[in-house]
Amino acid sequence: MIDTVAAVGSAPRRRLGEASLLAAAGWAFIIFITTYMLIPVLVTAVMSFNSAAMVRFPLSGFSLRWYAGFLASPLWMDALWNSIVVALGTTVVSASAGILAAWAFSRYDLPFKNLLYLLIMMPLFLPGVVLGLGLAITFGGVQIAGVPLYGSRFLVVLGHSLWAMPLVFLLMEATFRTVDKRIVEASGDLGAGPVRTFFEIVLPMVSTGVFSSMLFALVISLNEFMMALFLTNRDTQTLPVLMWLSLRSAGTPNLAVAAVVLAVTVFASLTLIALWHIRSLRRA
Amino acid sequence: MSLAAIPSRETNAASEGRRSAALLERFTPLMLLTPALAIAVVFFGLPALTMLRMSFNLHVDQRLFVPGLTFDHYGEIVSNPLFRGAVWTTIRLALIASLVTVMLGYCFAMLTWLKPRRWRLYLMGLALAPMLVSEISIIFGWWMFFPKNGLLSYALVSTGIVHEKISLMYTEFAALVGLTYLSLPFCFFILLSVFDGIDRRLLESSADLGAGPFTAFREILLPLTRGGVLAAFSQCFIWTMGTYATPTALGPDALWTMGLLVQEQMLSKHNWPLASAFAMLLVAIIAMVMFVARSLSTRRIDYHD
Amino acid sequence: MIADVSGHRPALHLENVRRRYGGIVAVRSLNLSLAQGEFLTFLGPSGSGKTTTLRMIGGFEQPDAGSIWIKGERVDHLPPHRRDIATIFQAGALFPHKTVAENIAYGLRMRGLQKPEITARVREVLAVVRLSGFEERYPNQLSGGQKQRVALARSMAVRPAILLFDEPLSALDLSLRLQLRSEIKRLHEEHGFSAIYVTHDQSEAMALSSRIVIMNRGGIEQVDTPLGISRAPASEFVYNFIGESCCMPLVASGGEVRDRQGGAIDLKLHTPPREGEWRLYLRPSRIKMAAAAEACENSLEVQVGFVEFLGESYRYHLRAGALEFFCDNPAPHMPRSEIA
């Protein structure tokens, strides 16, 4: 009896100690994770403005000369251009294919639905090395109208689409499921055919989803390097491929600039989506 | 309801029209699926089969491959200690990295879930960083952090914690730090979505009933998030298995992974059959991990229901 | 082509229309005609096949067998956009990213009307549903009732052969429902459109319809005017479904009436029942309570169990032998009574 009373009496005090300990641990974790997540990003950003020719600490001074060098270098600028072309191609291919397939899945009863789903989704779970290797050995000697497929940007676009399309598909399938079926029926009811309905009623209703999935595709393609490494040559190599190759030979401040340029491209795209989202919120 | 004339047969043209409309309706989903299926079949299915077939081809010096049927390449992976070691290294790295990632990701996601709303955006943005930045940029970031003249060494020396410059570059530790960094967001977002599905009042009621925070964690949170942990772990494992740039660039030279071997056999040694055999093995291991994770998580649900 | 005696083609004609889902028959062999300007209501419990029938008329589902004719043209297997119909959906189903005017103009554009004509029609039809001045609003700036009136306007604007109503009032609260019900009635009287209306609410059906089709388990139980349905229910199901009723299972033999347990019931009927088992149905509101002494054509001696006050009337729970039922009386009554 006495034991019980004593236990009850001490419990709140012990709990208080536990709680403050936990709170402290929580703060420590937040500081740790913040540092961990920001180290590589910040180090790179800072280094791109360093004036020294060597990548080393301590820093020597502020300079934009590496940016000037990057912009003046045809090698790096070509790689950036390749990256942008491939990323835009991937966006168009994966978004159109993925959105149409997602619409088919959410609107119609399909035979072998699970099998089709697996076929579309599977590449997302496979590493870039495997997908890149497969594409390289399959299309290594293939030519279309005298132009070799291997080493072309076209093949890289399709390779990147193997990751981007399932993602678009996944996102859009979930989005299409939120569309009120009766609104789609109402459009047909008022005399619009399926194509008209899709473009004039369905797509505008899911515009935010379309836009974000397109940006996902863009970001994936901009950052991907494994498949690009397998599938490009010196003329078509993308920015991450060139970064990887020069990192293997010798790290230079140019690399830091390239990393910042790549990140800025990604963040600029994300800002776009944020603006789009705000605009659509205001209109609704 | 008096009907003077009900035609028993409609005109041919009308029935023709009805049939073609029905046919069009039937083929609409197929037409919608065509682009996606074409991409999946031509650029994924076909290469997958080609790779499988290629892994049984012969390899003769100076030639990419010679058609044939041999299990030599699979045999070589098993018999060659260098290759066997690479398979083991890949699995070991993936296991350790996934374990660390899941633990970090679990704490990270739980904290995000418990913290007030205004923290959420900040923490989620933090977790998003590795996803938005290219793997190569991140490797480069760590590449400037770990070596003798890197930030870590500089910071430790200038604060007086150590006296000599130190280098953690080209160690397995550096490779693991890089791998964990890159797989953390997958893990975080999977687990956060699981936590978001839990009613936070469960914790309050558990505290009401006299359970301390650790008891509440063990008795309530852990069982409710087990499926999520499993999913996060398998996702991290699959991802770290397949990546090769990070361990290659940050780890020691002797740290051979399967991804590296695929790349090397393909691009430097031009041994397509062996590269394909490695790729198929990688796919097999990934498929197995997915299958095990899936069957484990469904069994758990069966047990609860 | 299909025509009635006077030479007018019916707005809608269904012939042996059938639909099943897997092994479940949703609609069994339906035959029906809708005259021009008629307001026909499908009334029935959920799962009775009324919504499936409407969706087949609208083209959202295909019948397994049979044919559907709109104004003499065969339309089954035509997709919705090739049919001369317009549906008013449950929650309006307005296009959320289009303004009220754009919503209404949509169907007109699909029919290839010219811009000035579209503008004129939008203005006209908005005036009809009393929403002039709402042209530039978006659907989420409208109340539930306004949304439904825009939906009505959107459908009426295209001047279809038939307007289809798919439980349009079920998402609204009671007062709004009554208000909009009168609105639909007014519009039908003024504009004389042909309409098919689906509901499970019998007061809606009674108030709006020229004729009511009572459906049950995929088949038609009765087709009649509202008055006919309530006066002369064609089947036991209709009797149960429409209004409140009391059921008395009885056995008649040798001029005597007993309950199913064999207890004698003091029931006197103007036309005595034939021999056999019967279920006698009574409307609680049409049972009159009277003192035992009063002479009546039909009477039953009962005991009063307990009384509920319903606000407008009193509900007497009665017992006669093993029979239990109730009747509604506008005023309180003395205990021991007989019923007429």
TrEMBL record, chain A:
Subcellular locations according to the entry: Cell inner membrane; Cell membrane
Main location: membrane
Domain of life: Bacteria
UniProt-listed PROSITE patterns: ABC_TM1
Recorded topology in the membrane: Multi-pass membrane protein
ABC transmembrane type-1 domain mapped to chain residues: 80-274
Alphabetical list of Pfam families matching this protein: BPD_transp_1
Similarity annotation: Belongs to the binding-protein-dependent transport system permease family.
Name assigned to this protein: ABC transporter permease
Record organism: Mesorhizobium qingshengii
Organismal lineage: Bacteria, Pseudomonadati, Pseudomonadota, Alphaproteobacteria, Hyphomicrobiales
From TrEMBL, chain B:
Domain ABC transmembrane type-1: 87-293
Alphabetical keyword list: Cell membrane, Membrane, Transmembrane, Transmembrane helix, Transport
Keyword Lipoprotein attached: no
Organism from which the protein derives: Mesorhizobium qingshengii
Subcellular localization: Cell membrane
SUPFAM superfamilies for the chain: MetI-like
The protein's name in its UniProt record: ABC transporter permease
UniProt cross-references to Gene3D superfamilies, sorted A to Z: MetI-like (1.10.3720.10)
Topological type in the membrane: Multi-pass membrane protein
Transmembrane annotation, as ranges: 27-49, 91-114, 121-145, 173-195, 228-250, 270-293
Claim: Phosphoprotein is one of the keywords in the record: no
InterPro entries named in the record: MetI-like, MetI-like_sf
Family of the protein in this entry: Belongs to the binding-protein-dependent transport system permease family. CysTW subfamily.
Primary localization: membrane
From TrEMBL, chain C:
Native source species: Mesorhizobium qingshengii
PANTHER family noted in UniProt: SPERMIDINE/PUTRESCINE IMPORT ATP-BINDING PROTEIN POTA, SPERMIDINE_PUTRESCINE IMPORT ATP-BINDING PROTEIN POTA
SUPFAM superfamilies found in the cross-reference section: MOP-like, P-loop containing nucleoside triphosphate hydrolases
Organism domain of life: Bacteria
Family: Belongs to the ABC transporter superfamily.
UniProt xrefs under Pfam families: ABC_tran, TOBE_2
GO MF, one example: ATP binding
Keywords for the protein's UniProt record, in alphabetical order: ATP-binding, Nucleotide-binding, Transport
All copies of domain ABC transporter, residue ranges: 12-242
SMART domains: AAA
The protein, known as: ABC transporter ATP-binding protein
